[in-house]
Amino acid sequence: MGYQNILVETREGVAVVTINRPEKLNALDDRTMEELDDAFAALAADRSVRGVILTGAGEKAFVAGADIGELARQSPVEGRERSIRGQRVLDRIEKLGKPVVAAVGGFALGGGCELAMACHVRVASENARLGTPEAKLGIMCGYAGTQRLARLIGKGRALELLLTGEMVDAPEALRIGLVNKVVSREKLLGESEALLRKMLANGPVSLRFILEAVNSGLEMPFAEGQYLEATLFGLICTTEDMKEGTKAFLEKRPPKFHGQ
Ligand code: COA
């Protein structure tokens, strides 16, 4: 698929996906969502890609939401389908099996905030402003924002943001756990990459299994999550990475992981 609204660049195992509609503050129209779906499917399958940074073009926005022009003219059936399609795209990102860092440089509103929450960690610039203003438009989150926000920052804080539709600035987003780190705008991509590369220095199978245990475990009763963890722990004991990681520690040298 030829991309019109996103850019994908890969360097030394890290793919940078940039949503590239700065004149519309990177709003997510249907075309952009299809391109993201296609790009993340390809990144999942590409073994040379070990982690992803997702960001928005321009100085003002990560993503200022779903495209309101499209939302304004949808029928109930189309709205439901758009919501299901969008949820699938964000699920694909969350379940990529490799770490995804959202580099949030500016507004992350509505669908943009939902997209950032589907990533595994969020680095924000000092000018970032995040929120779920859908209620101000007479609508509500449709890309699982009501579900992810409450899981990420807790029910009370999530309901405050969802019901007021107000934005929070970067320090407040950091305080409530909506973002992991705040840095200057100039350093946003560099710091996001540095954080991602810290993760990528670890065992690739470890990363995959940790993501699976946390993502799937949060959807299960605690005891089932423990069962999943113990099963994955048993499985990881069979890997070359486990042998190499423990041996390297005992031999006082850095490990060389191969993701096997
Ligand atoms: N959908 C479609 N277009 C959008 C958009 C969105 N979610 N957000 C911004 N845009 C467009 C604007 O319509 C404008 O286009 P135009 O130049 O053709 O008129 C362009 O992006 C720039 O936005 P503008 O509103 O002029 O910038 P601003 O700096 O004055 O305000 C925001 C920035 C983010 C406060 C404002 O754009 C906004 O409130 N956007 C909608 C946020 C929202 O409700 N998102 C949830 C959607 S479900």
Description:
The chain is an alpha/beta fold and 260 residues long. The chain folds into two domains: 6-200, 2-enoyl-CoA Hydratase, Chain A, domain 1 (Alpha-Beta Complex), CATH 3.90.226; 204-250, Lyase 2-enoyl-coa Hydratase, Chain  A, domain 2. The protein is 48% helix and 16% strand. It has eleven helices and ten strands. The strands form two sheets. The protein has a six-stranded mixed β-sheet, sandwiched between helices. The chain has a four-stranded mixed β-sheet with strand order 4-6-8-9. Helix 1 (30-45) links the parallel strand 2 (14-19) and strand 3. The longest helix is centred in the N-terminal third of the chain and has 19 residues, at 76-94. The two termini are 31 Å apart. The mean pLDDT is 97. Bound molecules: coenzyme A. The site of coenzyme A has 16 residues, from helix 2 and strand 6.
Descriptors:
six-stranded mixed sheet; four-stranded mixed sheet; 2 domains; Lyase 2-enoyl-coa Hydratase, Chain  A, domain 2; binds coenzyme A; globular; 2-enoyl-CoA Hydratase, Chain A, domain 1; 11 helices; 260 residues
Write the layout of secondary structure elements.
Elements: E1 6-11, E2 14-19, H1 30-45, E3 51-56, E4 61-63, H2 68-71, H3 76-94, E5 100-104, E6 107-109, H4 111-118, E7 121-125, E8 129-131, H5 145-153, H6 155-164, E9 168-169, H7 170-175, E10 181-183, H8 188-200, H9 204-217, H10 222-236, H11 240-250
Parallel strand pairs: 2-3, 3-5, 4-6, 5-7, 6-8, 7-10
Antiparallel strand pairs: 1-2, 8-9
The structure holds coenzyme A (COA).
